[in-house]
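Technical note accompanying the year-one report. For the benefit of new consortium partners, we illustrate the data format agreed upon in the data management plan: each record pairs a sequence with a structure-token string. No post-processing was applied to the example shown here.
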Amino acid sequence: MKTLKVLLATGLLAGLGGFGFLYSGWYPMGADVPHNAPTYWALDTLRERSIARSIRDIEVPPLDNPQMLLAGGADYNDMCAGCHLKPGEIDNEISQGLYPRPPNLAISAEAHHPAGGNEGDGHGIAKNGAARQFWIIKHGIKASGMAAFGKTHDDARIWAMVAFLQKLPTLTPSQYQILTARAEGDMGHEEHGSGGEGEHDGMDMSGMSPSGVNTEAARMAQDVVDAFQTALKSGDARAALAWLAPDVLIYEGGGAERSRNEYAAHHLQADMAFLKTSRAERLKRSSGDSGDAAWVTTEMRVRGKSSKGSDIDVLSAETALLRKTPQGWRITHLHWSSQDYKAPTPTPTN
């Protein structure tokens, strides 16, 4: 009986001490003061065990549709990059000031943890990584700054972001810029299909060879892109259109053209007129393939005149997705973007 009284008294004192500590305001709540080790361990363990339990029944859909990649990239750039960064970024003013520090999703899990990805680093282990990312995007995480986007985004749109996250660590800054640009008026509410009527055929990008691998298919894809550009520059509309798939999707100038016929009726003539009088210097190129699908990215310095006669000197980035058809390789997606050209800073020499 005496022991029970001692335990009750000890519990009561501990409870009163806990309440006193809570109301004292002594615990530092500023994001610039880290938790102590026991508190961090407790919160980290609670979070990860809760997520692991919640994702057990999530079925991951196929994530290799290129339209998902493009749609998810635009949403990531708008909603996530401010905290989780872009290729080439180490940190920014927002990510430096958040606690816990949001993971840099533009680098691989191995870069965070050379011995293997940690479930709590934002990537997740390979088996559950996609399901974990989906759950976190949809439901958010309490007291971390991670919002619950499931309140404003349907599951298809969230899975598109997950599809983009699988490719994000492999992208260069220029490839990221191309794949995340959003067409004018596109707020990401379109449904993402897999080759149905009115949609672009799916293209498996998961097994594509790495950037810069000069396979025969990649070389042929580069030749097609070059032939298309040559036809544009020479003013041969018929030859240029022959290299485009009927359902080609073209992003340029803040807008989108969703078929070969639509491109022919709109930007084709203006593109030919501009390229005919401009000078293009290729600066960088990379490509890859997965058998019947390929991609080519090209960076160029382009100098010429605008439609109003002003001088233009820009760094142009082009990405092209291609598929192999009975007629040969054809371009199914083109994206052009540009910014003012800035000459590289010379490397100092001793």
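Partners are asked to follow this layout when depositing records. The CA atoms of residues 74 and 182 lie 6 Å apart.
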